[in-house]
Amino acid sequence: MPHSSPKWYKIDNAAKIVPSTTKGTDTRVFRITCVLKEEIDGPILQLALDRAVKEFPYFNCVLRKGLFWYYLDSSNIKAISHEENKPPCAAIYFTGRRNLLYRVVYHGCRINLEMFHVLTDGTGAMEFLKAIVTNYLKIRYNFDDDLVLPVRSSLRSREADAFTKFYEKMEGKPLEDKNAPKKAYHLQGERDENLRVHLLEGTVSTSEFLQAARAHNSTIAIFTTALYMEAIIKEMSQREKKLPIVLSVPVNLRNYFHSETTRNFFGVINVAFYPEHYDGNLQTIIEEVKASFDRQLKDDQVALTMQGYSRLEHNLAVKVVPLFIKDLVISFANSRVQRGITGTVSNVGRVTMPDILVPYIDKFSCFMAAPDCQISISSFGDRLVFGVASAFKTHNVMMNFFRAMTDMEIEVELATNDYDAPEDMGDEFAAQKAREALEERLKEKARAGQEE
Predict the structure, then answer these.
(1) CA-to-CA dists, residue 344 to 338, 389, 390, angstroms
(2) Ranges of H-type helices in 315-361
(3) With contact defined as beta carbons under 8 Å apart, do 180 and 295 qualify?
(4) Residue 3 lies in a domain
(5) C-alpha to C-alpha distance for 75 and 419, rounded to whole angstroms
(6) pLDDT tens digits, the chain, 452 residues: what are they?
(7) What is the pairing mode between strands 361-368 and 343-350?
(8) DSSP label at residue 426
(9) Are 440 and 336 within one domain?
């Protein structure tokens, strides 16, 4: 039992808008995956999950409606792992239903943890998945019971609301917000009529990609953002190029404020580029992206970004408004914000595991359901993964994105749920054809190299 007595939590400031903005393919559910080098044993995974839940009791909550705000209520509901039987990132929260806000499913060699964003962010969820995987491999291979992940923080620290802890009233808004475009370019394409999310997973060598990023005087996050912008520009008409491309980039606030919370603790910066500035040179985009990162990631600007999430809770007028009115207002305000956003690039970062477990693990990947398309970056050893969750049935922009890498002599390994899922996810085979085209392109480059 997660708790011997009932316990409830205020939802954190980053999560307050989540229940009100769940819509269509934007289920506000994200998936973190660990791919092992062997097929998953279901009963062992259940035992591993049981152990992990005891380490993270906060995650075993249900979402309840209060008069003025949503809140999380502890529960004794048992989390059950099972073989995957739904489309990825399918809705988890349903109004009035008392159910857990995460699911653990498996397919082949993959362990998938899916979470409703009201509970946590990618960093917090990754800690939970790492605990599940560690327990799984300990049971599977009879490793010493003393083998555990290094838990540096107390349960109280992991369950803390960091937004409340670090809040202090500050005047003003981030400088970049003042000139933020009100309307951005939006990706075009055929949307899934069944509102299912399509996943595309591109895996490359971490060292090769990092080398390419450094050659362009940038980081993995900046380089990825610029490559994505260039890939989008290649699909835009001349008329569409009058609109800016604006990418949201989540920022892990734990890097700026000392916190070990496993709840949501992130901010978002928006990076804009006007296609009219593009001269055919990727470096032109990189320089503008890098400058935007530098301006927005200064300590004072990050602090102002964090305070922005807290204004809603500390606004007296907002506090006394009934929840059903808040839902309508927040939903409307979010739709206005989304008009100024093209897509999202989220860097979950480097994943580490105990050395003894590394040989059993292939990679980790992340996917976040989105209204249009989101790229999530994660790395494990020399396996760097771009997890793409898209509302579209075709992936023209992402094929441009990955082709740019193959042109840099970076080998790309592609996989998609469009054709290898455990159940029929639709009749879309464009991604498979694109993968075959990429593989043929790589072969041609190899043959050209041999001829020389």
Answers:
(1) 11, 10, 11
(2) 316-319, 323-338
(3) no
(4) no
(5) 37
(6) 444 455 888 888 778 888 888 888 889 999 999 999 999 999 999 999 999 999 999 999 999 888 888 889 999 999 999 999 998 999 999 888 899 999 999 999 999 999 999 999 999 999 999 999 999 999 999 887 666 665 556 788 888 888 888 877 777 777 777 777 889 999 998 888 888 889 999 999 999 999 999 999 999 999 999 999 999 999 999 999 999 999 999 999 999 998 889 898 999 999 999 999 999 999 999 999 999 999 999 999 998 888 776 666 666 556 667 877 878 878 888 888 889 999 999 999 999 999 999 999 999 999 999 889 999 999 999 999 999 999 898 899 999 999 999 999 999 999 988 633 333 323 333 444 444 455 555 556 556 655 55
(7) unpaired
(8) -
(9) yes
| Same domain membership, residue 12 and residue 148 | yes
- CA-to-CA distance for 411 and 70, rounded, in angstroms? 46
Cβ neighbours around 396 below 10 Å, total: 17
CATH of residue 24: 3.30.559.10
Report whether 397 contacts 232 (CB < 8 A).
yes
Q: Is residue 361 part of a domain?
A: no
Q: Is residue 359 part of a domain?
A: no
Which range of residues forms the domain containing residue 417?
175-351+366-451
Whether the Cβ atoms of residue 370 and residue 391 lie closer than 8 Å to each other: yes
Residues 228 and 281 in one domain: yes
Same domain, 132 and 158: yes
8 Å CB contact between 400 and 377: no
In 3D, which of 177, 188, 156, 224 has the Cα closest to residue 401?
224
- Please tell me whether residues 155 and 236 are part of one structural domain: no
Overall number of domains in the chain:
2
- Residue at token pair 């489309």: 87
69 and 145 co-located in one domain: yes
Say if residues 349 and 252 touch (Cβ distance below 8 Å): yes
Measure the CA–CA gap between 261 and 345, rounded to whole angstroms: 22
Q: Does residue 82 share a domain with residue 188?
A: no
Residue 358 belongs to some domain of the structure:
no
The span from the CA of 94 to the CA of 99, in Å, is: 8
Question: Do 198 and 119 share a domain, yes or no?
Answer: no
